Amino acid sequence: MSERTNPTRASVASPPDPSPSPQDSDSGGAHLSRQLSNRHIQLIAIGGAIGTGLFMGSGKTISLAGPSVIFVYMIIGFMLFFVMRAMGEILLSNLSYKSFSDFAGDLLGPWAGFFTGWTYWFCWIVTGIADIIAIAGYVTYWWHDLPLWIPALGAVVLLIALNLPTVKAFGETEFWFALIKILAIGGLIVVGLVMIFTHFTSPDGAVAGFSNLWNDGGLFPTGPMGFVAGFQIATFAFVGIELVGTTAAEAKDPEKNLPRAINSIPVRVMLFYVVALVVIISVTPWRDILPDKSPFVTMFTLAGLGIAASVINFVVLTSAASSANSGIYSTSRMVYGLAQEGDAPTRFGTLTRRHVPANALMLSGVFLLAGVAMVAAGNSIIAAFTLVTTISALLFMFVWSIILISYVVYRKRRPHLHAASTFRMPGGVVMCYVVLAFFGFLIWALTQKDDTLHALLVTPVWFAILGVAWSILRRRPGHQAREAAFRAEIAATHHE
Question: Which of 8, 256, 331, 426 could, after both became Cys, cross-link 124 (CB 3.0–4.6 A)?
Fold first, then answer.
């Protein structure tokens, strides 16, 4: 059996050669071009791991869970590493896959490609809205009387402009955005450690020291349910960790660059989340960290370093812009892929002369304007942020679950590809079920607070809309042919 036995899908979704060269150039004009180098892929992956949820949302997470937030981030990072390894093994098993939406449709059926692609698009639209809300909040740090909708609208226009040039231009932009984040967190850790070892005392009398981690109620001061509540915003901090999977069709030498990016996830989690939060809580006692403020800014403000706080506020502003920039990129590529499959209007499946899906890009930009409307209509930044981040976390959990389920089916139906893989997922199928059970725990955790419960109850509406759309779309001849080809492959697999 060939690596990809669905002829109908392959002919629509893939380049003519089912296993294109990793160095595939941008010739041909009809396909995405491989312009993202190793440094682009590495920094895009890091940028995806350092999201707005860490900079803005960790304040609320700390207020809910106290120092136990450190374990929250460690557990989530550990589990999502296996999602990334599952995704990496499948993507590298067949280089004609442009993203995980492709392999979901190939392994689970056309419906899975449709649901995964559109849900991932909606994931990043919702996440982008959260980032726009965060950007508006950060800008008012300097201009208190500025209407929130003005920086929100300006951010949307800027993001569209950043993504209209070549994909290499996006890679360069994201490279520098991510580098700013890395330098900022590194600087925060160094300054924080100096404060800790010199027993720095803030103007309100708080003394920096590692004892702040346990001397106010212990590591779990808010009890087991406080620890559980910390998972909501913390989960959102990791959305985008799978972003490297959407770069597969535009990455140079994916066999080397994707494994490097994926395998560095544990180091990123330990450095950018665990170490940074240990330092923050050691310098600023957890009860002094306000839920509606960035603890990165609060740490320097309480230490009396106003200028540094202003610099950090700029850094977290660029972090939110980086996340939204990645979202614009990934949603445009996902809609482009959906259009190539016939799951979106054909106008979104066209590319400019610079190989950019401009129509798909503009679609995502228009929907981001909802973020402008939310900040214009609402009074509470953190309330709007909590609502959209909860919906986003739920939708991303669906996408991550589809990746894991696809891996289970891949192992069953394509054992020869797993045997030949040089990038096998540790723990295999067993870890898939462990991580899926963890996602079940996260959904239960979201039911424990009213604000997250409301978002949980609203989210199924999205899947109902998709269900209705798919029931109409699947009646088209092209989709019926794809389903027939998929069923024929399943039948052939059973006969074997």
Answer: 331
Render 390-436 in DSSP notation, one character per residue.
Answer: HHHHHHHHHHHHHHHHHHHHHHHH-HHHHHH-SSPPTTHHHHHHHHH
Tokens (6 digits) for 433: 């079920």
Burial annotation 277-295 (CB, 10 A radius, 16+ → b, else e)? bbbbbbbbbbebbebebbb
What 3-state class would DSSP assign to 334? helix
Ordered domains of the chain (ranges, CATH): 36-415+427-488 (1.20.1740.10)
- Listing DSSP states for 244-295 in one string gives GGGGGGGBSSHHHHHHHHHHTHHHHIIIIIIIHHHHHHHHS-GGGS-TTS-H
CA angle, residues 270, 64, 205, in degrees to nearest 5 = 85
pLDDT mean by block of 10 residues, the chain; 496 residues: 37 36 39 60 65 67 87 89 92 83 89 90 81 79 77 83 74 79 80 86 78 87 87 77 66 76 76 85 84 73 66 77 79 82 83 80 83 66 69 87 95 92 92 96 84 81 92 82 77 62
Cα 429 vs. chain centroid, distance in angstroms? 23
User: Whole-prediction pTM value?
Assistant: 0.80
